[in-house]
Amino acid sequence: MTVPDRRRLATFGLTLAGLAAALVAVSLSTGVRMVALAPAYMFTPMVAGLVATLTSGLAPGAVGLRVGRRRWLAVAALLALPLVGLTLALSVAVPGIAFDPSADALPGIALPGGVAGVLVTFGLVLALGTTVNAVFAFGEEFGWRGYLLWELAPLGFWKASGVIGALWGLWHAPIILDGYNFPSFPVLGVGMMVVACVAFSPLYTYVVLRAESVLAAALFHGVFNGSAGLVVVYAVTERPVLNELVASPVGLAGALAFGLATAVVGVRGTPDLTRGALGSE
């Protein structure tokens, strides 16, 4: 029976922890906030994944770095939009949170009114999400849903997704503690981020397996990051606890939206998670 390789896992974990510690040290020594270093921090899982694969003789293509099934790449890119819409709907259903249709979703950009404006907004979000955002998202995803998903494939779909989700959430701790996403609740925010990432993880695993490519996760992640701000813009509340921990794409509303979608996937049946589904040595 194939099992995760402890030496490769140690290489990945130590490299990831070392890079994270190095950036935290840069932040502390220079006074540059970790939030400002976040674009560089996003590439640490990719570097750790490359070190783990290349030092063990694995080609990146073996862990999902390939084009895969194009139809599912498109599905992955589009899937984030209805999930953000569901997150927004769940947010404004909470007492104390209101929907503000007059909010300016894209400051500085003149948009047409009505439905046309909404379509243009989503078009711009999709374009940005599948290009610039997806590049940065790939910095994370090659590590999480490329190497690590391949390595943990013997654990099966649900357990591997849960483990990766928990690690993914904890990895955010340095920037969360610096005020990212949960500025009023930095310590509690780390726990909330873990909950959110565990809730997100099965859908990421699902699109990667369907697309047979880690690029699906990068597109999904990129569009989600690009559109998630719409929840913050349109769901209005004066209470920080609701604004940051509930009506947020990485708050309870976002976790619930992904959880509901995951339940649908679970009922319909998950694809088999095998190393062969991601690549071949």
Please give a structural write-up.
By secondary structure, this protein is mainly α. The protein has one domain (6-278). Helix content is 68%, strand content 1%. Helix 4 runs antiparallel to helix 9.
Number of domains: 1
Number of strands: 2
Amount of beta strand = under 5%
Strand order of the largest sheet: 1-2
> Main β-sheet: number of strands, strand sense, barrel status?
2 strands, antiparallel
Work out the oligomeric state of the chains in this entry. single chain
Which value, in Å, is the CA radius of gyration?
Answer: 19 Å
Gross geometry: globular
Unreliable residue stretches: none
Helical content class: 55-70%
Structure annotation, total helices:
14
Structure class: mainly alpha
- H/E series: HHHHEHHHHHHHEHHH
Keywords: Membrane, Transmembrane, Transmembrane helix
Domain CAAX prenyl protease 2/Lysostaphin resistance protein A-like: 128-226
InterPro entries: MmRce1-like (IPR042150), Rce1/LyrA-like_dom (IPR003675)
GO molecular function, one term: endopeptidase activity
Secondary-structure map with pairings?
Layout lengths: L5 H25 L7 H4 L2 H11 L15 H23 L5 E2 L14 H16 L2 H20 L5 H15 L1 H4 L9 H26 L3 H13 L1 H6 E2 L3 H6 L6 H17 L6 H4 L3
Antiparallel strand pairs: 1-2
Helix pairs in contact: 1-3, 3-6, 4-9, 4-10, 4-13, 5-10, 6-7, 6-10, 7-9, 9-10, 9-13
Summary tags:
281 residues, mainly alpha, two-stranded antiparallel sheet
